[in-house]
């Protein structure tokens, strides 16, 4: 059983706790054990605009902590992953920077030797668990479900540093979605940014980019969007839910987190997956699970998207 | 007489201070939009809230929180067992001492008919409680001055608190020891309580006390024969034992008596017990009078904060009551540093030397801000930057031992400061994500203004080029020879020099693609920025909005055929601007 230091970052524990609980449940079901290091801090990503050194210092502290434990670090967030990877790369390449950073780390008795291994949740599922093993564990696969998989910028690029998958035509996430029995659709803009980095800085642009992506996903016939990053999810779920309530958008594309999607097929308790924590409701997705299929096929074809429509209406009433 | 005057004076200062503090909870505010709420409304809505809570099911929540969090310090235990031991020792020991010993006349004496401070269990307990406090003080000193916890700041108020508590307890123990050793005090007791018939009896009893009770007599010195001791014991049992347990029971005082033994006779001559009594009582009265103005005020404010936060909710509670609670929370802070120790960005302090990054220090600055004292621009700027360098991870709020809703406090203070109009460049970073999500709470005008201010501060720094003026002759932009060399924070950033201007980056950029006329909104486009860097035209590169509207999605960098790290160069330019605007602001403050 492989062990990882779970890196939650700042956003997940504060604003997306169900991503954490769903991930823990899925990892447990797939025999991946995680260790929590309480002393972890911000990955440094939000400080990159302001102070390069502060960013490296914060990231390096996490890397040093995980190296000290002798564990690979697993991020659930694309931005955390990208920042840790970037810092790891810089510290490996630049001896004088490493020296400077270590001088500061030494004040707390820490040291980074450059030996940390940085992983993203999706990588762990793909490489450590494997598609075959996941498929074996699935008790209720999806049928007839179309998903638009959104990779998120910072796992893909800069590819020389993050080394996640092919930056131009990645398949890793699509294969993981495929493993659940759902169809991962090909869609325009699938590798583009969700707009979250400009939330609070240029909201108009941020919202427009998210909208374009949602429309593109919907246009390609996807019933749901699937992400594996808290920023992307907040952008596609919280913000979509927000604009939806003001009637700016009539036909949303509900977004869910990959561990929620996978967890449903693994038969994990819905509470742990936090389906109800989503702003744009996604309960309708359960209708696509294999055992729920018979009931669905019996109903007339217009009702195909029943669950989804219901979700939309309910969320409108609630938000 | 003297004691009464001093005690009433201390009590009067304490009461006046307490009332003043409570008054400031209602008068001052650091919350968004609360400055318009009149004082009477603040008082009324707070009282209404308290009454409604007391007569609802929430009373059970209050009870639970009172027992677990206030009395048993559950929240401290969750974080750190050693600190829990420290606080329980100090506060438990002190409270029990106040009840049993300081107010003994009204409590112990009233409850127990045969109460005497020199009889067990009171005799032993007094020392036990005192020793407990002392253990706590030692842990506190160890934690603050020996453990070297990174970024745990110790301020004067922390030292004062430790010194005051230590002074009260140490003077008390010394006083007890000096009295035990004092022959004068012994003689006084004999005179008051014993009925001895002749000098041999007096000598026997004194011998017994010298041997067993630590009295140091100038005349009666050991070793004594068994007969004298046996007679002394008999006399002791007849005259003293009723009201006086054996001295070693009061282990702390007895220990002190043993230590001062060699000097006891001299000390007694100088009336050391009397002097120490004054020191002990003075230390206690100073502590009482100073309490509302010291960090020890948390004795009153912290339980209130814990209770209030257990039942109040953002959005449901009245804004007037929240404003009051936030002011009270500032007094509830004990400057324990728990928030700082778990802060997600605290380690950034090593690179950005602004102490206000640390939550525990932010609170201290916010106290100054809320007090209404006129702060300098530099101070305001530092607090503003400190409050903004926060990822809003809620960790501080989750761990605060006194339950302060720090997250909410930061949010309010941030907005209040931003509205003062000092530009904050950190606004143009992903740190604003939370502010973006909270947009509705802020109000449209107040939301946009600081963002525009920040952009303007940058525009003033560079030569902003909007659109492509056609019929206008442009002055030749100023070149900065050293500029190129300065872009060297990371190896990636110097790659701009190999750009051959193919525009692939610009074509790949989703931000550029979004605008119909990108140059109008963004100024220089990515390839132009690379070119400006190569030419050393600092002003143009700095003035481009493109930098701050960059998503950092790395499309440009990924697709560059020349391997220019476009996104990283943009990052570096942003760093340079933040640094130079910061310098400029510092200069402006200095010349003022």
User: What distance separates the N and C termini of chain A?
Assistant: 42 Å
Q: Remind me, CATH topology of the largest domain in chain A?
A: Rossmann fold
The largest sheet of chain A is: 4 strands, parallel
- Largest interface, chains and sizes: A-B, 56 and 55 residues
Helix content of chain B: 55-70%
Give the overall silhouette of chain A. Answer: globular
Alpha carbon gap, first and last residue of chain B: 56 Å
- Gyration radius of chain A, in Å: 20 Å
The number of helical segments of chain A is: 16
Pattern of helices and strands of chain A: EHHEHEHHEHHEHHHEHEHEHHHH
The total tally of domains of chain A equals 2
In terms of DSSP E residues, the strand content of chain A is 5-15%
β-strand number of chain A: 8
Question: What is the residue-averaged pLDDT of chain A?
Answer: 90
Counting helices, strands and paired strands, the structural category of chain B is mainly alpha
Task: Please give the domain count of chain B.
Answer: 4
């Amino acid at each position: 059983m492989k062990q990882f230091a779970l890196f939650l970052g700042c956003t997940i524990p504060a604003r997306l706790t169900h991503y954490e609980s769903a991930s823990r449940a899925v990892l447990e079901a797939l025999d991946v054990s995680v260790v929590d290091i309480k002393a972890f801090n911000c990955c440094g990503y939000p400080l990159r605009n302001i102070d390069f050194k502060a960013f490296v210092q914060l990231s390096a502290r996490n890397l040093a902590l995980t190296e000290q434990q002798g564990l690979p670090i697993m991020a659930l967030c694309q931005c955390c992953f990208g920042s840790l990877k970037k810092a790891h790369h810089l510290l490996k390449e630049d001896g004088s920077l490493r020296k400077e950073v270590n001088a500061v780390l030494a004040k707390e008795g820490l040291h980074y030797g450059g030996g940390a291994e940085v992983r993203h949740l999706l990588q762990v599922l793909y490489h450590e668990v494997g598609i075959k093993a996941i498929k074996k564990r699935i008790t209720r696969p999806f049928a007839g479900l179309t998903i638009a998989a959104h990779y998120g910028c910072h796992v893909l690029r800069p590819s020389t540093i993050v080394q996640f998958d092919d930056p131009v035509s990645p398949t890793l996430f699509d294969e993981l979605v495929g493993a659940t029995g759902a169809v991962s659709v090909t869609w325009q803009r699938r590798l583009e940014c969700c707009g979250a980095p400009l939330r609070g800085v240029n909201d108009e642009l941020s919202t427009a980019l998210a909208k374009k992506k949602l429309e593109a996903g919907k246009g390609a016939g996807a019933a749901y969007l699937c992400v594996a990053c808290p920023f992307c999810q907040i952008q596609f779920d919280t913000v979509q839910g927000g604009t939806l309530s003001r009637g700016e958008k009539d036909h949303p594309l509900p977004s869910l987190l990959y561990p929620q999607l996978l967890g449903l097929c693994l038969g994990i308790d819905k509470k742990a997956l936090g389906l109800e924590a989503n702003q744009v409701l996604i309960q309708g997705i359960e209708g696509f699970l294999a055992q729920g299929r018979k009931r669905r096929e019996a109903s007339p074809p217009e009702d195909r998207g029943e669950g989804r429509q219901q979700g939309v209406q309910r969320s409108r009433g609630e938000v | 007489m003297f004691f009464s005057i001093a005690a009433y004076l201390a009590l009067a200062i304490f009461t006046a201070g307490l009332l003043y503090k409570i008054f400031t909870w209602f008068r001052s505010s650091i919350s968004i939009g609360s400055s318009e709420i009149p004082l009477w409304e603040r008082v009324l809505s707070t009282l209404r809230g308290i009454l409604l809570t007391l007569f609802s099911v929430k009373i059970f929540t209050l009870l639970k929180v009172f027992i677990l969090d206030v009395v048993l310090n559950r929240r401290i235990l969750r974080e750190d067992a050693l600190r829990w031991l420290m606080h329980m020792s100090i506060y438990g020991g002190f409270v029990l001492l106040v009840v049993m010993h300081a107010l003994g006349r009204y409590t112990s004496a009233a409850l127990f008919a045969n109460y005497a401070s020199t009889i067990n269990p009171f005799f032993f307990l007094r020392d036990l409680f005192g020793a407990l406090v002392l253990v706590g003080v030692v842990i506190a000193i160890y934690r603050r001055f020996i453990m070297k916890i990174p970024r745990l700041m110790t301020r004067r108020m922390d030292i004062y608190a430790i010194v005051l508590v230590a002074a009260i307890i140490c003077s008390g123990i010394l006083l007890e020891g000096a009295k035990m050793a004092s022959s004068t005090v012994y003689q006084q007791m004999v005179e008051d309580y014993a009925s001895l018939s002749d000098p041999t009896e007096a000598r026997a009893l004194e011998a017994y006390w010298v041997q067993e009770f630590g009295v140091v007599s100038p005349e009666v010195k050991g070793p004594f024969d068994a007969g004298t001791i046996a007679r002394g014991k008999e006399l002791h049992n007849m005259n003293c034992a009723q009201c006086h347990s054996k001295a070693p029971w009061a282990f702390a005082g007895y220990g002190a008596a043993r230590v001062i033994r060699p000097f006891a006779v001299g000390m007694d001559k100088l009336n050391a017990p009397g002097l120490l009594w004054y020191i002990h009582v003075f230390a206690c009265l100073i502590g009482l009078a100073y309490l509302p103005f010291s960090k020890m005020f948390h004795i009153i404010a912290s339980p209130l904060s814990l209770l209030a936060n257990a039942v109040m909710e953002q959005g449901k509670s009245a804004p007037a009551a929240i404003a009051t609670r936030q002011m009270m929370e500032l007094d509830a802070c004990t400057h324990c540093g728990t928030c700082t120790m778990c802060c997600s960005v605290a380690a950034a302090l090593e690179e950005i030397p602004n102490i206000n990054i640390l939550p525990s220090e932010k609170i201290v600055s916010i106290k100054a801000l809320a007090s209404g004292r006129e702060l300098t621009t530099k101070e305001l700027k530092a607090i503003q930057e400190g409050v903004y360098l926060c990822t809003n991870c809620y960790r501080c709020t989750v761990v605060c031992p006194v339950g302060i809703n720090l997250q909410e406090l930061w949010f309010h203070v941030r907005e209040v400061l931003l509205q003062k109009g000092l530009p904050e460049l950190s606004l143009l970073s992903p740190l604003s994500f939370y502010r973006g999500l909270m947009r509705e709470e802020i109000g449209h005008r107040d939301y946009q203004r600081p963002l525009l201010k920040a952009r303007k501060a940058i525009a003033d720094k560079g030569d902003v080029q909007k659109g492509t003026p056609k019929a206008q002759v442009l002055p030749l932009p100023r070149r900065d020879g050293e500029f190129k060399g300065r872009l060297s924070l990371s190896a990636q950033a110097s790659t701009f020099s190999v750009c051959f201007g193919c525009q692939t980056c610009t074509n790949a950029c989703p931000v550029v693609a979004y605008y119909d006329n990108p140059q109008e909104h963004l100024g220089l486009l990515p390839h132009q920025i690379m070119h400006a860097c190569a030419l050393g035209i600092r002003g143009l590169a700095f003035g481009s909005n493109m930098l701050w509207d960059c998503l950092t999605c790395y499309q440009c960098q990924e697709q560059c055929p020349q391997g220019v790290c476009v996104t990283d160069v943009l990052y570096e330019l942003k760093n340079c601007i933040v640094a130079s605007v910061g310098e400029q602001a510092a200069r402006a403050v200095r010349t003022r």
